[in-house]
Each structure stands twice: as structure tokens, then as C-alpha cells.
Fold:
Amino acid sequence: MSQNVEFKAESRNSTGKGAARAARREGRIPGVIYGGGETPVHVTLPEKEFSNFATKRGYKSTILEINLDGKKIKAVAREVQLHPVTDKIEHFDLQKVVDTQDMRVFIPVKFLNREKSPGIKRGGILNIVRREIEFLCNPSSIPNIIEINLEGREIGESVHISHINLPDTIKPIIKRDFTIATIVGKGGKAAAEEAADEAADAEQGAEKTPDAKGEKAAKAE
Structure:
């Protein structure tokens, strides 16, 4: 499990696009903390520190300690919204962590032993369908990463979630045996990437069940 990361937050009484722009001019990012059966809290975080954190692999599975008005709130990042041109973070959604309740988290995938894959050795290309997978688990047992062994994999083979030895403490949100990656020949790369994009888009739409309060607050800004 990753070490907790701390941020000092500031409360914000005003919401909406004007207040959000004012916060960004002051070097802070507006966002909302929701969940735990409590009223969503509107806050800002320091832009530089949070932006650096959100570029790191596995940031969505890292528990944050948010210091707000003398209290500590544990949370995980559920969504960050980027500016369409600059890619700067414009808004974030954090979900409160309740130690006694399982929660949904995105855990990054790491592929091992590419050099031991006969398919890749012969010029095959690893086409990654999912770079992170959403699981249900207790906050105390969130893995840092999901490792996938490519040893022995040939061109044309796919890696499915059923092929992975997962800890008993986590369960994938998607019930079916979805594809994580495939090894394709060079000629099949474009078609495989297009199919992977379409599958990922369809599954994201099916899986997305955002907290209504958090989504409403985010759309207001």
C-alpha cells in the first residue's frame, strides 16, 4: 500500500465559474470532497503540489490526508478535469475514505518480463487496453500496482483479468472476463488500437456511476 500523501486545503464559501477562476488566479485548484454520507465540502488545493501529484502513476489509488480547518480528512482522487488546451487541472473530485467500508479505486497495471515473451521477441507489439483497473477493496489493503507477467506470451494472445493472480482482498468492478492487453503483429496494431479504444469507451460508460452530489458540484464550475 502506498504511503499517504498530505495536502493543506482551504475552504471556499463561493462556488461557480467565477469563484473557480478566482481561485486559479491565486494559484489554487478548486474541487470538492464528497462521500461518507456527508455533505460535499468545497475546497481548494495548491496548484503546483496537486498537479505534480496527479502526474504520478497510481495517484488514484493513493490515500490523501487533507488538512482542512484543523481537521484531517482521508480521501482518494476520483476525477480530475483538465483544460482542453493547456492540460492544466481545472477541477478535482475527491472521495472520502471510510476505514470500515470497501471503496472503488483505480489501480495501475505493470507489465513484467516483456523480454521473455516470444511474440514480442519476434516483433510483436504489446497493445495495452487498460493501464489501470477499477477494483473494490478496503482502504487498508489497496495494492500499489497490479503486476502482469508476459513470459511465454505469443502473437495473437490476449491477457484477461482471469489470468491474473489477484489478492483475495480486491475484486474487479467489471464482472466479465475483460481484456487487459494483447500481443499483435505489426500489421494488426492499428486495428487492435481502434478496437481497444472502442471497448474502453464503451466500458467506461457502463461502469461510470459517479456520486450524484460530487458530479453536480463539479458541473457547477
In short: The first strand starts at residue 5 and ends at 8. The CA atoms of residues 32 and 218 lie 7 Å apart.
